[in-house]
Amino acid sequence: MMIRIGIVTVSDRASTGVYEDRSGPAIQECLTEILNCEWQPVYRLIPDEQALIEATLIDLCDFEPCALVVTTGGTGPAPRDVTPEATLAVADKLMPGFGEQMRQIGLAFVPTAILSRQVAVIRGQALIVNLPGQPKSIAETLQGLPQNSPPVHGIFAAVPYCIDLIGGPYIETVDSVCKAFRPKSAQRVPRG
User: Fold this and answer.
1) What is the pTM of this model?
2) What is the CATH code for 3-186?
3) pLDDT band for position 188 (50/70/90)?
4) What are the DSSP E strand ranges found in 39-136?
5) Using CA atoms, how far apart are residues 154 and 10, in angstroms rounded to an integer?
6) Residue boundaries of the structural domains of the chain
């Protein structure tokens, strides 16, 4: 079964061609390194407009249908940063641990990571996660900081089991890049 993953870049300037979107492609590249299963990206590049972000998330979750939707951009404190508000508006359940871990990873690099308002939510059988905007931060957030002492887990280690629990497809990862954690009772025999 082909796993569909929504990738949404929220940026006024990139959506109007002022500069090239580097964050969306960085997410796709990072997921290509992490995933050990067939998947298809469903990409969107949109401006910082709450109603449009909400409509895009609903479309990706309900009609595409994506098991995972990751956004980048619009999570800071600036007036135009409304991605968290849009994400919360379409949520069935909040998943606060993801935001806590993303800020923890960011704080290993810059004190301003505390200004990030990233959230994660469940909508139906989809997980929506607001990622950071910088390509380097995206990889660190998803894959973690294994070189740190003690190592810091990336958020993607928890994504496959979360998707299992909400009735989504079984997602496999490349263990050497980002080992998915599942209790033994939820593990399947790896594909050959």
Assistant:
1) 0.95
2) 3.40.980.10
3) confident
4) 39-46, 68-72, 93-94, 120-123, 126-131
5) 22
6) 3-186
